[in-house]
Amino acid sequence: MKSSLVRRGGLLAAVVASVVLAGAAPASAAPGDGSAYGVKADVKLLGQDAVKAGPFAAANTAGPTSNSLAKVDLTGILTAGAINTEAKRDENSGAVTAKASTADVGLPLLKAALGNVGIKLVEAVCTATQKGVEGSTKLVGANLGSVGAVDATPAANTQIKVGLGALNVATIILNEQVKNSDGSLTVNAVHVKLLGEGLKALGSGDVIVSSATCGPAAPPMPLASGAGLWIGLGLLGAVAVPVGTRISRRRSARA
Questions:
Q1: Among 38, 107, 120, 148, which has the highest number of CB atoms less than 10 A from its own CB?
Q2: 81 with 140: CB under 8 angstroms?
Q3: pTM of the full structure
Q4: Dihedral of CA 107/113/115/117: which sign?
Q5: Kindly report the CA angle at 26 between 15 and 28, in degrees rounded to 5?
Q6: How many CA atoms lie within 13 A of 35 on its CB side?
Q7: Nearest-10 Cα torsion for 175, 179, 182, 184
Q8: In sequence order, what are the residues at sequence separation of 6 or more whose Cβ sits closer than 8 angstroms to the Cβ of residue 241?
């Protein structure tokens, strides 16, 4: 009888302990994810070889969580100065922040249609919290040649048609926000889409400057990993002590 009571007490304590520790395990939900990069190009300009380059200075919540690059020079396509990126997750709240900034951007691929295109700073930010996912774009000193200046904080999915004579050769999307099927959000601060390869076309493909993807946020860290852990351990003690007392009393009675 005594050994049976001991086994029951030990089993009950183990069950309570497993409940407490299960609540403390951060692996109870998949963590939030985020990523960012400065520049990516996949284009074929008229009469030239295809160019696939980037993503440059990529960062990810899985590591590296931050990255940088001094400059990028893709002849005839894009030039850029310093790139800085980061993608980080708050392990306590589950919030994810991804950010990419690219300085001194030039887009010579648009020169035939717009003239000189330059932007002093291109920044994309994406943030995921328990309330949801949101993103934004900031452009500093942006001048799109014959299009002129644009808003420093353009509305989501602002589109600018680029023509060469009567032909529409490209679309510039500012603050492009793409809601992905997994619940995440991608923010491309500047996305240039070349539309074709006709005789008057510039070429085909895509150039993206400053991209950030995040979310959805991970569940916050369970209460049992902090103060709740001490509550759980107190519960374990409250259960284990009466069992031990009961065994002691039985032993005394038999003596």
A1: 38
A2: no
A3: 0.75
A4: negative
A5: 65
A6: 10
A7: 30
A8: none
Q: Kindly state the tokens that stand for 132.
A: 């949801």
66-69 vs 72-74, strand pairing mode: unpaired
- Tokens linked to 169: 């050769």
Half-sphere exposure of 73 (CA within 13 A, CB side): 3
CA 20 to chain centre: 31
By three-state DSSP, how is residue 193 classified?
strand
For the segment 209-239, what is each residue's pLDDT rounded down to a tens digit?
999 999 898 888 765 555 444 444 444 444 4
Please calculate the CA angle 45-48-53 and round it to the nearest 5 degrees. 70
Query: What pLDDT sits at residue 31?
Result: 42
Mean pLDDT over 64-69 rounds to 98
What pairs with residue 119 in β-bridges? 105
- R_g (Cα) of the chain, nearest Å: 29
Residue listed under structure tokens 């005789």: 199
CA distance from start to end of the chain: 14
